[in-house]
Amino acid sequence: MILRRHRPGRQLRSLLELFAPRRECGRGLHGSVKSPPVPPPIPFVPDVQTFLKVIGRSSSQHASKFPTWEALFSLSSAQLREVGLEPPRARRYILRWRDKYRKGEFGVGGDLTEIVDGAAEVKILEVPVPIRPGSDGKLASGTLTSSPGKKKVVVNVKPGTAEPPVPLEEVKPVNQMKIRDGHVISGPYVSLVKGTGGTVARITAQEGMWEHKRGRKIDGGERRRAEVRAKRRAREKAEA
Question: Which one of 86, 101, 107, 205 is least enclosed by Cβ atoms within 10 Å?
Answer without folding.
Answer: 86
